[in-house]
Design goal:
Oligomer: single chain
Helix content: 25-40%
Distance between the termini: 49 Å
Strand order of the largest sheet: 15-23-22-16-17-21-18-20-19
Largest sheet: 9 strands, mixed
Radius of gyration: 23 Å
Shape: globular
């Protein structure tokens, strides 16, 4: 049975292919179109997934899309009658729903001449989120929680997952949303672009929670663990806010009301204005407010369900700082976080909802075991022949940069040479195997550096990344050494949690230790990424440090997907070494 799962008409559009209950391919549309957070129908990702599996559209039995325009319609209607939002807002919502409703026509247009026989399933947005975590977690049962911006008129959903089933018991509905709250503070601090929330999370450790009392004016935690927004500060529920979601990088207009917000916090930060301590304090206060509401939900859910396992998803589950405190600040003892907790993850979630529902039905064999997603390496890969052809065709460009090219067939020698270059302070482009699923570079499309160098952050920002100086860089650490270097010990294969670095170790790895002593780690397993594990082991043998600095392989663009994009990034920046599978290019 072939199920094609989609996140469509949301930011970070994506496709995932599930065959006989196993995920075999998944990728985000932005990687092919080279436009960050691309929103629309993910036709290029769909075509790649099918081609990678040797299939055509006619081979697909079921298509699952992570939105259902028919759910929560009574609540929508009652809200419109009661609140009377602007006509512009209503018409935009209806147009978005209509576009999703014409989905079949859009798919057929993207695959002209191909047989479209698949049954289409519309899966509620938050059910897809919950499934993207629980149904691939390996848990027999777990509390399931999705915390998001909005999808299908809800911002959060929770319930219990058992076996193949997820029972949703509660939701927080529009217009209340922790995701909207965090975006409002992001905009107010002066980060206007879609997806900029991670900048607030990175800025927060430089501040103090001096505005937490004011933040509680915006978000009101309820006695049952849920929350409400104080809507007098927000525009998203009443005004015709500018949204652009169709075939582009999403754009979102100002979501807050300027006068009451400035009365509460003082003037907003204008475009291009310098970051002041006030803005750092606002960021820290927003993070503290989010954590206060988040942990109230977790405590309430644990008390309700009496289960120690948590499957966490939704765009807010990208808040790795809060995630890293789950074991410290809640009763949960086990947690699964998917590689892509945000909207892209809905492609995997919706596919598995349908696949599990159909297991054992007529003509579909039941499976004795269930797929567990313990790694993210399910994207495009490149053959040695393709890389050699690329290097031959670009030989003049490579020579113009005074680069040498050699192929190293022995993996030990390749990893040893790369590890040595890292110890010499060189910046390495590391392009290997299948591209990672999700927003994080996890050792296959990564830029690597020496975590021991205090100046490595400045080197990377000067040579390649050209990003804000307050943003941290992450450590990739051998799984077996986590407890030696961090105050907590857990599997973090998708770089979705921030732990405190042990006090006595911080001076040894200044490049990957944030200002508050933390690190957003990735645990590297020999079983799931043997070459990356071998590289870090080679670096450890030289230095005694079992980790490398890891950041995404890009320069103000989506993470590189194809080798030509990696080569272009290498040539136009001041990167020192590029390793394309077995090929090493050095300046």
């Amino acid at each position: 049975m072939i199920v094609l799962g989609l996140n469509a008409y949301h930011g970070d559009s994506a496709a995932a292919l599930v065959k006989d209950g196993k995920l075999i391919a998944a990728a985000e549309e932005e990687r092919f179109r080279r436009i960050k957070h691309w929103s629309g129908l993910p036709t290029e990702a769909m075509k790649w997934c099918l081609a990678d599996a040797g299939l055509t559209l006619g081979d697909v039995d079921h298509i699952a899309i992570n939105r259902d325009p028919k759910v929560n319609n009574l609540r929508r209607a009652l809200y419109v009658l009661r609140k009377r939002p602007s006509l512009g807002l209503i018409f935009k919502r209806l147009a978005n729903i209509k576009r999703a409703g014409s989905f079949e026509d859009a798919v057929q247009a993207a695959f002209p001449g191909e047989n479209f026989r698949a049954q289409v399933h519309r899966v509620e947005h938050h059910l897809a989120h919950l499934a993207s975590a629980f149904l691939v977690s390996g848990f027999d049962e777990a509390v399931c929680l999705s915390v998001d911006g909005f999808g299908d008129f809800a911002s959060s959903a929770w319930g219990m997952g058992k076996g193949n089933d997820i029972q949703i018991d509660g939701r927080v509905y529009f217009p209340h949303s922790l995701g909207i709250f965090y975006t409002v503070i992001t905009q107010f601090i002066g980060f206007p672009h879609y997806g900029d929330e991670y900048k607030v999370m990175g800025l927060a450790p430089y501040g103090e929670p001096k505005y937490l009392k004011e933040m509680r004016e915006l978000v009101q935690v309820q006695t049952d663990g849920s929350f409400k927004l104080n809507l007098q500060y927000f525009r998203h529920h009443s005004d015709d806010v500018h949204y652009t979601w169709d075939n582009c990088c999403p754009e979102v207009g100002t979501l807050y009301k300027k006068e009451p917000m400035e009365a509460l916090f003082g003037p907003q930060r204008e475009k291009g204005a310098a970051l002041e301590q006030k803005h750092r304090d606002l960021a820290r206060s927003a993070q503290a407010m989010y954590e206060e509401a988040f942990f109230a939900m977790l405590h309430s859910l644990h008390a309700k369900y009496k289960c120690d396992a948590l499957a966490l998803s939704g765009g807010c589950a990208m808040n790795s700082v809060a995630n890293g405190k789950v074991y410290l600040n809640s009763p949960f003892k086990r947690m699964y976080l998917p590689a892509s907790a945000g909207d892209a993850g809905g492609a995997i979630g919706s596919a598995f909802v349908v696949a599990r529902q159909l297991e054992g039905s007529a003509g579909t064999p039941a499976r004795s075991g269930h797929f567990v997603m313990d790694h993210a390496y399910v994207g495009p890969q490149t053959t040695d022949t393709e890389i050699k052809a690329l290097l031959d065709s670009r030989a003049a460009d490579i020579a113009a940069e005074n680069c040498t090219v050699r192929r190293i067939d022995d993996e030990d020698e390749l990893c040893q040479a790369t590890a040595t270059a890292i110890t010499e302070g060189k910046v390495i482009g590391w392009f290997q195997g299948r591209m990672e699923w999700g927003p994080r570079a996890l050792g296959n499309r990564s830029i690597l550096g020496d975590p021991r160098r205090a100046d490595m952050k400045d080197i990377l920002n000067l040579k390649i990344k050209r990003r804000e100086s307050f943003r941290p860089f992450a450590p990739s650490i051998l799984r077996e050494h986590v407890s030696e270097w961090f105050e907590q010990d857990d599997d973090v294969p998708f770089m979705m949690e921030v732990f405190q670095v042990r006090q006595e170790k911080r001076a040894q790895i200044p490049a990957t230790t944030h200002v508050d002593g933390s690190g957003r780690l990735q645990t590297v397993h020999k079983e799931t990424n043997p070459r990356y594990h071998r590289l870090i082991s080679a670096y450890r043998d030289i230095t005694g440090v079992p980790m490398v600095l890891n950041t995404s392989f890009n320069e103000n663009e989506p993470v590189v997907c194809k080798p030509q994009e990696a080569l272009d990034c290498f040539l136009r920046t001041k990167m020192d070494v590029l390793v394309l599978n077995d090929w090493m290019i050095q300046r």
